[in-house]
Write a structure and sequence with these properties.
This protein is α/β, with parallel strands linked by helices. 34% of the residues lie in helices and 25% in strands. The strands form 4 sheets. The protein has a 5-stranded mixed sheet, sandwiched between helices. The protein has a 4-stranded mixed sheet with strand order 8-13-12-11, sandwiched between helices.
């Protein structure tokens, strides 16, 4: 039976990194940088808006896709599928993936293109969808899946929480259709959702329920809104059982997994999750110190670094696990 194999990885973050001290000056905010670095793990980030860089979501996704294609040695014209996972798209419509396809391939091609929006679980959800499509359809031989984030575009002036946590970035993987004889490939995924918790944190203005108007802007009820505080132990409760269930579903022992690439929202939470799983903390790559929190971009970005730094080798079982507002959780099991 055919399966999807990761052929290459890439990432993109705009401009020069912004340290915590510089962020305070550029955004005109104050926050406890020592606590942010010690507990959350964020020391720097990339934000196009604060650097005066004229780049947005489609630019981030395109550059990450191009980097992954170059790494895989795949010509953009070979792509049969382009998927972008994000909750910060270029437009409400058309899909960001359609723009990326046009930029990569220069016009009409026999190539599917669509977005996946599952909050910060968008990339892992998109990867699961693309891998299953590829396994079941012989005409899909090459695909690029991008996780992209541009939440700083929605952060309002003076929002110390928003500016200190969220950052711009994108990561991508190129998939190739291979047969069972290849030891590498996608094994399985697991998705969990609870839509009754939609009103915690999100970008609520701009859709049909809350169109953007002058009155809305004047009231400052737009952009990133934290309506209810998220439970601090949410991911600690969610991730371990989901990961265990996924490994059982995929027939891979938890102790055999060589890397756990988790949402890069909080260093302390990731360490606690690894302790709960009974696995070494060193098996969870972390990049929030360099990139801040890049939402749907953070899992493929952390994976890219782990591969390029030699922490993940061909033949290694790998787990991705990510969660986002709403809430949505997704996990992937694969052999790199």
């Amino acid at each position: 039976m055919a399966k999807a194999k990761i052929l290459g990885t890439g990432l993109y973050a705009p401009g020069k990194a912004i340290t915590n001290d510089e962020l305070k000056k550029l955004a005109g905010i104050e926050f406890d940088a020592d606590r942010l670095e010690a507990k959350i793990g964020i020391k720097a980030r990339h934000i196009a808006r604060l650097r005066g860089i004229d780049e947005t979501s489609a630019d981030f996704a395109e550059q990450a896709a191009r980097a992954a294609l170059a790494d895989a040695g795949v010509d953009p014209l070979e792509l049969d599928l382009v998927v972008v996972g994000s909750d910060t798209p270029e437009f409400i419509s058309p899909a960001t993936a359609i723009l990326v396809q046009g930029r990569l391939q220069g016009g009409q091609r026999d190539c599917g293109a669509f977005d996946v929006g599952a909050s910060c679980a968008s990339f892992v959800t998109a990867l699961d969808a693309a891998a299953r499509m590829m396994a079941g359809d012989p005409s899909i031989r090459r695909a690029v899946v991008v996780g992209m984030y541009n939440m700083p575009a929605y952060v309002r002036p003076g929002d110390a929480f928003g500016w200190s946590i969220f950052a711009d970035g994108a990561g991508a993987v190129v998939l190739g259709r291979v047969e069972d004889g290849d030891p590498s490939g996608y094994i399985s995924g697991k998705l969990v959702a609870d839509g009754t918790q939609w009103d915690y944190v999100g970008v609520y203005a701009g859709g049909t329920s809350k169109p953007v108007t002058k009155e809305l802007l004047d009231s400052e009820a737009y952009g990133l809104e934290l309506l209810q505080r998220l439970p601090g132990d949410r991911n600690l409760k969610l991730w371990p059982p989901i990961i265990r269930a996924l490994c059982e579903k995929g027939g891979v022992a938890l102790d055999a997994v060589k890397a756990f690439v988790l949402t890069q929202i909080n260093k302390s939470v990731i360490e606690d999750v690894m302790d709960a799983l009974g696995r070494p903390r060193s098996l969870a790559p972390m990049v929030m110190d360099r990139y801040g929190y890049t939402g749907s971009g953070c899992v493929p970005m952390a994976f890219h670094h782990a591969v390029k730094e030699g922490r993940i080798q061909r033949g290694d079982p790998v787990v991705f696990c990510a969660s986002g507002a709403g809430f949505a959780v997704g996990a992937n099991l694969l052999i790199y």
